[in-house]
Design brief:
Blueprint (H helix, E strand, L loop, with lengths): L1 H9 L3 H29 L8 H26 L4 H25 L3 H29 L5 H29 L4 H22 L18 H21 L1 H31 L6 H33 L1 H20 L4 H29 L2 H29 L7 H24 L16
Helix pairs in contact: 2-4, 2-5, 2-6, 2-7, 2-10, 3-5, 3-8, 3-13, 4-5, 4-7, 6-10, 8-13, 9-10, 9-12, 9-13, 9-14, 10-11, 10-12, 11-12, 11-14
Length: 439
């Protein structure tokens, strides 16, 4: 398998191994912590989960987190990234311990969400630091491979962490004690990630100390201006603008389906009085979807070589329209698992394609700003989807009208993007490095 071969070649690089191990332990903990958040927010025995409650939770947790994103690069250009990885993981371990205490105390939801939001905001620095550090530990010829392998392996690690957290819930009595234990375990994993990062030299990951940078206040002030400039640059180049519009629409559909899945797992596939059963069902569904992400990472390079990146994005959207409607309408668990797997394949396959178009059709001087715009669109679309789902979904999640509406948006997105990409095909302005590490 090419993905395994690529990973094996990268693991021969000592510094990559250490950065990769930092990512795996960090995202393993992320998966466990996110399941704990879901358990407390949506599957607590004392709560009646509704679409409105889910939408509120997503808005509280994701919108502020999205606003932090564009500013992380400014600070990461000033702080030693190895120290960011060490200290942020230690800080997360402390913060999740506090969060576990809040769960045991039974604090109101706004307090719990505020604590979780702080942890997720720190997490933004870790993920950005890991990505920014890759060019420091991987030769240019293997950078594309590393950019593909590392996030995919991180997603698998997060899924494993989430699965382990679900197992803990399954063997412990329902209640805040199980959630608090999962949170504490995730804190221990964050400490292990900090320990792995500490094995690297302090200056290994950059930035170079002799770089001349603008003042911090000036740099922070430039973020909003940079987002506007990035948006204007994309608008002037039709191919990346169309790609970003397509992935934003698909992310919106993904968000609606996520809320629907939570409600089905909580209130339809299990008795509402059995929150642990609901959490286990949801955990299985998320794990199956993560497997779809992995398959997309393996299959996308081969498929796009044959049919092209734009055709693959359009195909993913059109396939999602048909498959989600066909498999989702029974509102039964077995077809839902198949739908979750295929949604993982199509959504991640399209995202890989959009990432490639943005990377290769945007001027290098604007690429960071464009990806900041991309990041904001991606997260805001998910929150907007949750808000729309709150208006249209019943508490049991069964709504043929909403599901067919999502399928229609997928189909419209696929059709419009296919037409637009034929009229304005991507024009490569910056070729990515070739992978000289392949055998």
């Amino acid at each position: 398998m090419p993905l395994i071969r690529d990973l094996r070649s990268l693991l021969k690089l000592r510094d990559f191994r250490r950065l990769f191990a930092t990512r795996l332990t960090s995202q393993l903990s992320d998966g466990a912590f996110q399941v704990a958040i879901a358990g407390q927010a949506f599957f607590a025995p004392e709560k009646q989960t509704s679409a409105g409650a889910i939408a509120t939770a997503f808005a509280v947790l994701l919108l502020p987190y999205s606003l932090v994103g564009p500013f992380t690069g400014v600070l990461l250009d000033r702080w030693r990234r190895r120290q960011v990885l060490v200290l942020c993981n230690v800080l997360r371990a402390v913060l999740v311990s506090v969060t576990a205490g809040l769960v045991l105390l039974g604090v109101p939801d706004p307090v719990f969400y505020a604590a979780a939001l702080v942890v997720l905001s720190v997490n933004r620095f870790v993920l950005a630091g890991l990505s920014a550090s890759l060019p420091r530990v991987v030769p240019a010829g293997q950078l594309v491979t590393a950019n593909s392998v590392s996030p995919t392996a991180g997603t698998v690690a997060a899924a494993l962490g989430g699965g382990a957290a679900v197992l803990v819930h399954a063997f412990l009595a329902a209640g805040s004690g199980a959630t608090a234990l999962v949170i504490v375990v995730s804190g221990l994993l964050y400490l292990s990630s900090a320990a792995v990062a500490a094995t690297m030299p302090a200056d290994l990951l950059g930035p170079d100390p002799d770089r001349v940078l603008p003042g911090l206040r000036e740099a922070l002030g430039s973020v909003a201006r940079g987002l506007r400039e990035g948006a204007v640059h994309v608008w002037q180049r039709r191919a990346p603008a169309h790609a970003l519009a397509a992935i934003t629409a698909m992310r919106f559909c993904y968000g609606v389906l996520t809320v629907m899945t939570v409600l089905l797992c909580r209130n339809t596939f299990n008795e509402p009085s059995d929150p642990d059963g609901g959490l286990a069902t949801f955990g299985i569904t998320v794990s199956v979807s993560a497997l779809g992400f992995f398959v997309a990472a393996v299959a996308t390079p081969a498929i796009t070589t044959r049919i092209g990146v734009p055709a693959w994005i359009g195909t993913c959207a059109l396939a999602a329209a048909v498959l989600q409607a066909a498999l989702g309408l029974p509102f039964a668990f077995a077809p839902l698992l198949v739908a979750a797997f295929l949604l993982g394949v199509t959504s991640q396959g399209a995202k890989i394609g959009v990432d490639t178009i943005v990377q290769t059709t945007v001027d290098d001087a604007y690429r960071g700003r464009v990806f900041s715009v991309y990041d904001v669109l991606f997260n805001v679309a998910f929150v907007a989807a949750a808000a729309v789902a709150a208006l249209g979904l019943p508490d049991d999640g069964r709504s043929p009208g909403v599901l067919l509406g999502v399928a229609a948006v997928f189909a419209l997105t696929g059709s419009l993007y296919t037409l637009a990409s034929r009229r304005h095909p991507p024009v490569i302005v910056a070729a990515l490095p070739t992978d000289s590490g392949r055998s």
